[in-house]
Design brief:
This protein has about 250 residues and is α+β, with helices and mostly antiparallel strands. The protein has helices at about 10-15, 30-35, 65-75, 115-120, 155-165, 185-195, 210-220, 230-235; strands at about 15-20, 40-50, 55-65, 80, 85, 90, 105, 130-135, 140-150, 175-180. It is found in: Nucleus.
Length: about 250
């Protein structure tokens, strides 16, 4: 299901809602909340999980009480490296006819095809919100299936028209590209549920003051689970000014 704006939400509320993509698979909702709450007062935080298994799908929704904190969080966290992941933080969008049904299911991909390859192939058709390559749980090897969520329905239409049933360069067999949210399909209903964000209780955390404060937060989970870098590498270039050390 696409992220949707509740009818009682104000424009200010919508502007405070963020989607966080490409999170480490083992990262918990509590850890996400703790990290993002260093920016300001969090209104909602929800890690999206697969309904059947409870496994993290690698993305979450975070909402700040103050819209200014949302912009600051994007500047600080977008492009941040956590373990082997580079997270992407952007504004979550209210639903509209233009963005509904922009999720694609792709099958027939080579076993060597990774998420970067997937985004390279589909990125030519528009802005990708999130993507995923499914892997075998036992071996960790990709199983030839992926998902791509575009910013606009029209972009997804272009990708289907260009790639469905075609043999891309370097492939031996054609791939199948179709919408992942076909109505009345139980499997797709499960896929749709992966995008549902619900609201949680309000909590208050002190704002982040220094870069080293954030480093300390990231180091507090086990043996530096989310801190495989130095403090100098912590903040991406576009966010350095937002948390410059005093």
């Amino acid at each position: 299901m696409e992220y949707q704006m509740n009818t009682c939400e104000t424009p200010q509320t919508v502007q405070s809602n963020l989607i966080v993509n490409y999170l480490p698979q083992t990262m918990t909702q509590e850890e996400i909340r703790s990290i993002f709450s260093r920016i300001g007062e969090i209104e909602n935080c929800k890690l999206i999980r697969e309904k059947a298994t409870g496994q993290s799908l690698g993305y979450a929704f975070v909402s700040y009480k103050n819209p200014d904190d949302s912009e600051r969080a994007i500047n600080v966290f977008n492009g941040l490296q956590l373990q082997n992941k580079t997270i992407k933080v952007s504004y979550a969008r209210p639903s509209s006819d233009a963005i509904k049904g922009a999720n694609l299911y792709i099958s027939g991909l080579p076993k060597t095809f990774n998420q970067q390859d997937l985004e390279h192939m589909f990125g030519q058709f528009g802005r990708i919100i999130t993507s995923k390559i499914l892997v075998d749980k036992a071996s960790g090897v990709p199983n030839g299936v992926g998902f791509v969520r575009f910013d606009q329905r029209a972009e997804a239409d272009l990708a289907i028209e260009a790639l469905n049933g075609k043999i891309p360069k370097g492939f031996k067999d054609p791939i199948q590209v179709k919408f992942a949210n076909t109505p009345n399909n139980s499997n797709n209903n499960m896929i749709n549920s992966q995008y549902l964000a619900t609201q949680l209780d309000l909590i208050l955390r002190p704002p982040i003051a220094r870069r080293r404060d954030l480093v300390q937060v990231l180091k507090s989970y086990g043996k530096n689970r989310y801190s495989p870098f130095s403090s100098n590498d912590l903040v991406p270039v576009n966010g350095a000014a937002a948390v410059a050390a005093a």
